[in-house]
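Review form for a predicted model. The reviewer records the input and the model, then writes brief findings.
Reviewer: anonymous (R2)
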Amino acid sequence: MQIEWLIVGVLAVWRITHLLALEEGPFDAVLKLRRTLGDGALGHLMDCFYCLSLWVGLAVAFGVQAMAATPTLVATLLLWPALSGGALLLQRATAHAEAAPPANDLPTEE
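Model under review:
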C-alpha cells in the first residue's frame, strides 16, 4: 500500500465519522437518521465519535485494501485500527477547546 492511500483513508474515516456523529448533514438528513435510530444500540453508536470511527474505519480499510496490488485480510485487519486511530488524532487536533483568555486580560493581584 502506498502512503497516499493511508492518508486518504484516515481523512475519509475522519470526515465520514465527523459527518455522522457531529453534524446535521445536508438538508438535516443525518440529524433525521440519528433521531430515527433513537435510543437503541445504533443510535448510541451514532453519538460516539470513538465507537463510530471503528466501524467507519473497517469499511474504509476494506476499500483501501481493495486498491492494493495484493490485498490480504491480515493487512486489512491491521489497517482498520490505524485508520480509526488516525481519525481520532485528527478529531482531537481539530476539536474546539475553550479558549483561554489572553495573558493581558488576566486579573492582577493587588
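Findings: The mean pLDDT is 86.
Further findings: The CA atoms of residues 62 and 76 lie 6 Å apart.
Recommendation: see findings above.
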